[in-house]
User: Fold Glycosyltransferase family 2 protein from Nocardioides nanhaiensis.
Amino acid sequence: MSSAPSSTASTTGVPAERAARDEQVAVLLVSHDGARWLPTVLEGLAGQHGVDGRIAAFVAVDTGSRDGSADLIGAAPLAPTPHVVETRGGTSYPEAVGLGLDHVREVAPHATWVWLLHDDATPAPDALAALLAQAHARPEAALLGPKLREWPSLRRLLEVGVTISGTGRRELGLERGEYDQGQHDEVREVLAVNTAGLLVRREVLEQLGGLDPQLPVFGNDLDLGWRAAAAGHTTLVVPRAVVFHAEAAHRGVRRTPLTGRHTHYQERRAALWTLLANAPARSLPLTLVRLVLGTLLRMLGFFLVRSPGEALDDLAALVSVYSQPGRLRAARRGRAATRRDDDATRARVRALRAPWWLPYRHGLDTVGDVVSALTDQASDVAQRRRAAAAEADPSSMAALRLQRDASDLDAVEEDDEQRYADTGVVARFATNPVALLLVLVVVAALVLARPAYGAVVGGALAPVPEAAGDWWALLTRGWHPLGSGTDVPAPAYLLPLALLATVVGTTATVSALMVLAVPLSLWGAWRLLRVVGRFVSPLGAPRWLLLAGSLTYALVPLTSGAWGGGRLGLVVLATVLPWLGHAALGFADPEADRRWRAAWRSGLLLALATAVAPPLWFAAVAVAVVVLLAAAGVVRGALRERSVWAPPAVALVATPVLLLPWWLPALLTGAGEALLLDTGRLPGTRVGALDLLAGRVGDQVAPGAPVWLGLVLLVLAALALVPRATRVPVLICWVLAVVVAAVAALLVRVPVRLEALRVEVEPGLGSSVVLLQALLVTAAVLGALGAVRARGSRPARWLVVSLAVVAAVPPLGGLVWATLDGGGVLTSTEDGDVPAYMVQRAETAPERGVLVVRGSLDDGVGYRVLRGDGDTLGEDEVLALAAEDDELTATVRELVSRPTPAVVAALGEAGVQYVVLAAPADGRVAAGLDASGGLTQASADDRGTRAWEVTRELSAASVTGETPWWRVLLWVVQAAALLVVLVLCAPTVRGRRDR
Assistant:
């Protein structure tokens, strides 16, 4: 227990005769588990002098204390005898004060003043006398507060009056850690004073309605003072009255059901509520917007200093306040009833508030602190590096001196810890060239991705639907009203897209995936390469090497042509692959529990990667088999332990289980080709052997970076075999690369025919291209790390220099190419041949389909049937994988060659309302359609596109169907499997067994 603060407080010597003899005081103390402070607090109350006859009653409200606080108060030698009111735990401070006031009316009905005290705030012996003396000298004062000092230090200032800024910051007007030297001992009017030691006229407190119940712990003082000022009352701070406050709730020393573990949330919520409940009506809209923007900026700042908890607390506080508009309106109406609406009062309240420019000054002060700390921080970094060098070579005299300097470094850091608490992270960032380069790269990537801001379409990327519900419908239906109707399952990648789109919308989902592809790939590659480097060397790879390697990989979506060609699946695969590799490294962990956790994490990420790039699963199976066989060859008996071979097997098996609603129906409906094809519009482009080695998947419109740029990386990976120190891990990368290439060579021999498009295509090799690029980058980084470690010899130094020069080519060349000619086919809209009014009618019913015919009688004719708003993302793949409708094909053949009324009637039965002959229209076909009965001309445009309307009866029978029961069962299995995998991905919690 700390010593009694009364021993350090000076006596004012204010005679009781100066106070009005007819005014009495009721002391109201609120306690909750305050037994550690109460003995000193009660001693301070008993020692109050100069107030003989002024104290009419001692009333204590105990809110469910479990440490005997109520008994301590009841047994205290106070005069008059304390009245203890016990209530339930969880009672808020405003409720407790309200209960105390009710009791004061009973035991001391003539008390004019109420003195509020906390159980962790002890008054100096003359505190109450000084407050009453000032109340007598300033009769207009309705609220008077003491000067608060820190307990147990007793000398450090906490508050001498308080106000609030426009951003909700509690403004004290004090320097951090300022000691009390009498510099703030002037009585002055303030907006508010702390409730710890607040002397308030009982009549005013009751007229204002007491404390706001919406502020259960924090912010009561500011809200009450603001309301009192708005009602025309005066609040004074009386520095000669001293109260020592432990601030147990604010400092987290004491947690209650009201504060829990989120003190910051409660404080921020109180600040937001106080501002919105008391702000003038004319400034309320601006305040609402300012607090939202300010919260976002505060969250960003918290994230930058690695305080995500405070950032989330800020967001939760904003949501909590803004989600209660009814209570806010009621609070504002209550304040309006006591407010004085005259210009003088409003001007007075404005003067008591913090000036509008104060938040900006705080920002400038922070910037100034950062700038002033940069030099010292850089000096500290240099000292640490010299100390590390001394440890590496302790034999030299310089090392001995550096060790002596390093011994003093801890003392320097200890002295500067508080000074750098808020600016250390920023200073380290500003003095780190690699960090600055990373920021520049991310900014450049976001600028280069500007074609993907907003709606994006083109190449292999189809337009997105208007709402996420369209994707959910496509996923959950067993029969799709597309084309002639089909039961081909929707692509598996629509599930994560639909989940994201439910939150941010379809357009924002696709745009975000394209825009953030490079930054997220950069982040994932950095993490992966850092861990891989530590497998080789305890110190890991240098940061400049990590930057070069991760940037080279992060540019793969751009340089390969996948981004510019709208290959969303490959772009997402490039983003996910480093995270998958990072999770798979857990298979090498010596602890079995960590290997199993790696299995579930790898299985989840592999399922996501397979959903966007199906052929990847076959490469993953081959890689796993080769790695396990190699492990069995190196370590005999390794595969006998189930915890060694089972985790990789579980990760591989988890993928088809998690993708079961897509995988199994695809095989049963004759659309098994989907397991071998890259996602996106079909057919895709062909990837040759040179493209595979150079990392290119583009076409003539979006070919990607020059091939020679990709071959440089291949050369670097080959040179990585030279350094002995890292030859084994580099060789592993090369073995895996050969396995991936072999799988690609086998897949390309599998014939794939798309019946609906009447074309034969090669299996998708885009996933093999991305995986090969990842392995080559890893090999090159490991080789460079080996060369750096062997830099002692002259040949090795030349090798390091040569590798550094060549290693800069892929990332710098990729950036230059992306900046100058990162061309693609991505746009915000896509031209169509179907008039807009036809699309609008097609959206109303499935039988209002549009038959689009292309080609001529000489070169051949192709067709497709559009329904709804056209073929959107996911629907185009379903149509391409569907079986050809032979009956509709025969009908279209007759329509373009010998159209008859029977043929037109067949169109109506197939659910076709319009026939569109796309430009350039064949004159013979157009003439036949003009002369056919049952067709009327609908429209024509300048490009030569012609359209007719079918006047026969329309039927939706051919495009309607039911969802089989077993499809629903597959979705249930998928949901259960996903839940199990997510739970098993979490860390294992072990109980203590040391007893």
User: Anything to note?
Assistant: Residues 460-512+835-959 form one domain. The chain has 39 helices and 19 strands.
